[in-house]
Write a structure and sequence with these properties.
Length: 387
């Protein structure tokens, strides 16, 4: 396939996948589409791994090495904004995180590798469901992914708005944070809004808690250690002219180590219970661990950087990118086998659509970076499984 035809095929795959987004563990049409494309390339394809996951294998030569390359499949519950001929046709769902582009790039890598066969060993093409809630990688691993399809190493990639188009960035060690979720339930005493003295106002208590939680980062944590506490939802059972009885606060925390996770949980509980007790209110506190930190293996980072340099050039590669506080369930793979995760620039401030943030209804994956993503994956395999 010539260069122009290959680039057009990548765009066609991406736009097809964008039209029919499906959320976590519902990726049935997506899975079928991926399996059909991989089967057409002559690959050995297995479906239904971890629910809707797809794994394809390609063996060339007699090499015993086995390398995995992974893309995520799920979309988000967003209503897409903007006029595009390939806009979402599934109401209230869209690929607002670029997983359509990740899948297309991995399909592109499969296409390149099946045609070039410039390696010696086995490649596993892993299409993973349910990355957004952090459950898909664990589901695939739990259903025997690593036993059925052994891999010595695994590599992944995510587009990053704000990074210049086509740049590739990674780092050894922690690159993305863990995510823990929390729910705070406060029970006060409701009252008429005109008679606040007869209430135990849970909204005032909630306001004190939200502000006080921010002191954990600023006063209990070393300023050189990254962590975030974000309260993102607040719900009450009140009406405009009544002080409510119940308030519920939801949110999440981000950090990189078990020690910081434990400190955040303990300090949050102490603050919540202390403030509620001070006001005579009752409280419940739930704290759950959703995503582990994404920690790259040094030896795999070296391979990833070499592949990136060969594909993008020195000026477009950052081998020591700053850590980010977003989370990724690729971390589950890295807890089991060596690997590396990289960012690929979707576009900087001057690149128009490429700079719109992830998880935004106006976001769109930048088609211009599909080819470099596919070539990067293919180059990883050529380097790691030499002939």
């Amino acid at each position: 396939m010539d260069k122009a035809s290959f680039e057009q095929q990548l765009i066609e795959w991406r736009h097809d996948l964008h039209r029919f987004p499906e959320t976590a563990f519902e990726e049935k049409m997506t899975s079928e589409y991926i399996a059909k494309a991989l089967t057409a390339m002559g690959l050995e394809v297995h479906t239904g791994i971890g629910g809707t996951g797809v794994v394809a294998s390609l063996k060339v030569g007699s090499g015993t090495g086995m390398i995995g390359i992974r893309a995520d499949m799920d979309a988000l519950n967003f209503t897409e904004e903007g006029e595009r001929p390939y806009a979402s046709r599934n109401k209230g769902k869209m690929h607002a995180c670029g997983h359509d582009g990740h899948m297309a790039a991995l399909l592109g890598a499969a296409k390149l590798l099946t045609e070039r066969k410039n390696f010696n060993g086995t490649v596993r093409f892993v299409f993973q469901p349910a990355e957004e809630p952090g459950k898909g990688a664990l589901a695939m691993i739990g259903e025997g992914l690593l036993e059925q399809f052994p891999m010595d190493e695994i590599y992944g990639m995510h587009n990053m708005p704000g990074m210049p188009e086509g740049t590739i960035a990674t780092r050894a060690g922690g690159i993305m944070a863990c995510e823990d979720n929390f729910v705070i339930r406060i029970k006060g005493q409701g009252s008429h809004a005109a008679r606040p003295h007869m209430s135990i106002d849970p909204l005032v208590i909630a306001s004190e808690i939200i502000l006080a939680l921010q002191t954990i980062i600023s006063r209990n944590l070393d300023p050189n250690v990254p962590a975030v506490i974000s309260c993102t939802e607040i719900h009450t059972d009140g009406i405009r002219n009544a002080i409510p009885t119940h308030v519920e606060i939801k949110g999440d925390t981000r950090s990189y180590t078990p020690e910081v996770q434990q400190m955040l949980e303990e300090r949050m509980q102490a603050i919540i219970e202390g403030i509620c007790s001070m006001h005579g209110a009752e409280c419940q506190f739930e704290y759950t661990h959703e995503f582990a930190p994404t920690v790259n293996w040094k030896e795999c980072v070296d391979v990833a950087v070499k592949a990136a340099l060969n594909v993008a050039g020195e000026a477009k590669v950052d081998a020591n990118v700053q850590q980010v506080m977003v989370s990724e369930d690729f971390s589950a793979f890295l807890q089991n086998i060596p690997g590396c995760f990289v960012f690929i620039g979707n576009g900087g401030a001057s690149d128009g659509k490429g700079n719109i943030p992830l998880h935004n209804p106006a976001y769109d994956f930048n088609d211009n970076i599909l080819k470099i993503g596919a070539e990067y994956f293919a180059e990883l395999i050529r380097i790691r499984l030499p002939q």
